[in-house]
């Protein structure tokens, strides 16, 4: 004899002989005290006996014994289905998840059927259903583990493996310094201009008051383009001055950063290419005082408020008067060190008032307009700021060097 009863732990239980009859009586007494509601129409009945019967129409005790809506059988059947369910890959896994655990899945729908279970059976059935749910979830979890470490079908690639770390790049120290210089001058109202690195002789020399055979050309040992001797690699950024002035738009307040080339022996201190920033300010009544104050402001912003400057008279064919500007050595606090060669000063740029010939070469009336220009290397201040001892490091692309600037500004 089989009986399904909460008293017997909510399970189908086999009972025999007198013992079984005693159980039945105690069960009947318990449900008399707390009668379950009538089963839903068409609901199944598990009976004492060997088989299901149709729902009773009378008030016989059978009706009270085991009213069921087939939930238990469904659970048993689904359990078998889950056991047999084969999950081979991520696709199967997802199908399984949708079928059993999804919002419209079997677990959810069985849960919804709980409302039809009689009160007396609720607890036991709830427990059964919970166990079923855990069973379904465990199968999902273990299958997931397995399929995750499988290659994606046919691709030979296991997408679950950890990826190759992405190297974060860093700005090149020359770019960092170039950007700092630009930012300072932009605050003074200077805009940025650009020009060609392969230049003709006129823009690089002649227009800058350096006619052919001028001895000052020797100061800048030049690379010429073999196939086209009229072309050369610009020796300074001053060519951009000329190109901007030729445009005829005044006033001009510009800085022009860029790469320049000179035929110099490569060593720790010099290279055959390097970087400059050119500055040009042209308007009516621009004076040497403007030049000094502009550059003084600039170096204090770049090196700190305590920096001192000095101007030494110098010579450039394109400026008159000309000067070289030094800053007090920030490495030894002007006491004298190997970098400043014991002088306490570091030379950082050349400057001067734009020569009237240069203005006239570009079609600017030199009686009405005056201006100043300056040119500085970027490598030197970069080496000072970051303590770089060899200029060649800038162009060797050694990651051990470049990586040190990750996060630098
Ligand atoms: N062009 C000069 C050089 O490369 C620097 C400079 C520019 C000097 C502008 C004065 C004015 O040496």
Care to describe what's here?
This protein is of the alpha+beta class and 409 residues long. The strands form three sheets. Strands 3-6-7-11-10-9-8 form a seven-stranded mixed β-sheet, with helices on both faces. Strands 1-2 form a two-stranded antiparallel ribbon. A two-stranded antiparallel sheet has the order 4-5. α7 crosses α12. Bound molecules: phenylalanine. Phenylalanine binds next to β10 and β11.
Spatial order of the strands in the main sheet? Answer: 3-6-7-11-10-9-8
Give the class from helix and strand content and strand pairing. alpha+beta
Name the beta content range: 15-25%
Helix proportion: 25-40%
From the spread of the alpha carbons, the general shape counts as rod-shaped
Mean pLDDT: 86
Output the helix-strand order.
Answer: EEHHHHHHHEEHEHEEHEEEHEHH
Key terms for this structure?
BirA Bifunctional Protein, domain 2; two-stranded antiparallel sheet; 36% helix; rod-shaped; binds phenylalanine
Quick recap of the structure?
The chain is built from 13 helices and eleven strands.
Topology:
Layout: E1 2-5, E2 11-14, H1 17-33, H2 61-65, H3 71-84, H4 90-101, H5 106-113, H6 119-148, H7 173-187, E3 191-192, E4 198-200, H8 201-204, E5 231-233, H9 238-246, E6 252-261, E7 273-283, H10 288-303, E8 309-316, E9 319-328, E10 345-354, H11 356-361, E11 370-377, H12 379-386, H13 399-402
Parallel strand pairs: 3-6
Antiparallel strand pairs: 1-2, 4-5, 6-7, 7-11, 8-9, 9-10, 10-11
Helix pairs in contact: 3-6, 4-6, 7-12
The structure holds phenylalanine (PHE).
Phenylalanine binds near residues 236 and 351.
